[in-house]
Amino acid sequence: MTTVIDIDARRTQHCETTALGVLLRHQGLDLSEPMLFGLGSGLSFIYWDSKNMGFPFLGGRVRPFDLTTNLATRLGLELLVQETTSPRKAWQNVVSSIDAGHPVGLQLDSYHLDYFASKVHFGGHVVAMYGYDDRDAYLMDTDQQGGTVSTSLTSLAQARAARGPMTAKHRSFTLTVPSDLPSPRSQIIPAVTACADAFLHPPIANLGHRGIEKTGKLVRTWLQRTDNPQRDLPQAALLMEKAGTGGALFRNLYRDFLAECAQHLDSGHLRTGHELYAEAATLWTEVAALITQAGESGDAQCLVQAGTVLRDLSRIEREAMHTLSRLGQ
User: Fold this and answer.
1) What is the DSSP string of 190-214?
2) Among 27, 19, 22, 8, which Cα is nearest to 178's?
3) Judging by DSSP bridges, how do beta strands 148-152 and 57-61 pair with one another?
């Protein structure tokens, strides 16, 4: 037996916006990936390190699933989230929706999925499931992971049951678009200002513009932070550029979101914010290249240079967000 829903597949770059796009287009709401990311106030920054981590992690977005809840709240979407500790109940939650003709979003650990080439645990991965048979599940993932893919039901069950950082208990979700949907354009200003305010006023020094500044100081010590710099530094840079971030630690996506907003709203603040994020995106890619170079060559001077660029980035992004926070005033 096979149950497959006809979906509109696109070439996308980030997992959560990929799944959101599939679910919303099936309901007749077609928004670009940058617009989904921006309306969900997705941009952020975190420097994350602890004793039990092999190496520091740089994150460029809000926590997994926050983007989905932000977007649902902003557009008045009905978000139905189901979680359970029972694998049997978890599977029932999914198939009942698919059998009724609705694709489902799943949060899981990508490590267990058959089609994932890089075997790294990431419990905040999100996919859209649109079909299944007695052996496989049919999923929509990012372009980098193959787009329209399948994985065995066994591997899917393992991925959903995984426990650890950022995981959720067999989380599945659906979205329903209301008949009185507000114009997405009308939600640009609240989405942009909420994102800016969170970035400008982080509760701890590891987040937002303060986190970027802190990273600028700590990155200089990264050769001493690991006993395998040839592996760990290029890997950290790869995560910034290629691990579903859309490039430049999500700054490319946010730059494109602001450019799209500027087509809808005539605002100097928006144009300035876009110009500054275009500059920031280029510099983040430069930082990733310097970190890679430091790992491969063992030259600490590359990390000193990366630290200087990060200090500039903290200033540029703070200025961009300060400008964007005044949108609509």
Assistant:
1) HHHHHHHHHHHS-SSTTBHHHHHHH
2) 27
3) unpaired
Q: Does 45 have pLDDT greater than 90?
A: yes
Question: Which residue, chain included where needed, has tokens 């419990």?
Answer: 123
**CA–CA separation, 36 vs 251, rounded Å?**
14
Tokens matching residue 251: 């700054």
Position 180, amino acid: D
278: tokens are: 């275009």
Token digits of residue 271: 């144009």
Mean pLDDT, rounded, for 12-26 = 97
| Contact in structure between 320 and 272 (CB atoms under 8 Å) | yes
| Helix (H) or strand (E) run with residue 43 in it | strand 43-48
| 3-class SS of residue 228 | coil
Tokens coding 112:
């267990």
Q: What is the DSSP letter of 207?
A: B
| Count of H-run helices and E-run strands, the chain | 11, 9
Quick: pLDDT tens for 58-101.
999 999 999 999 999 999 999 999 999 999 999 999 999 999 99
Q: What are phi and psi of 87, to 5 degrees?
A: -60, -35
In this structure, the strands spanning 104-108 and 172-176 are: antiparallel
Nearest to 55 by CA among 214, 217, 224, 216: 224
- Collapsing DSSP to helix, strand or coil, 79 comes out as strand
At 213, list the tokens: 């500044």
- What is the total residue count of the chain? 329
Q: How far is it, in rounded angstroms, from Cα 142 to Cα 73?
A: 24
Closest CA to 199 of 191, 210, 215, 214: 210
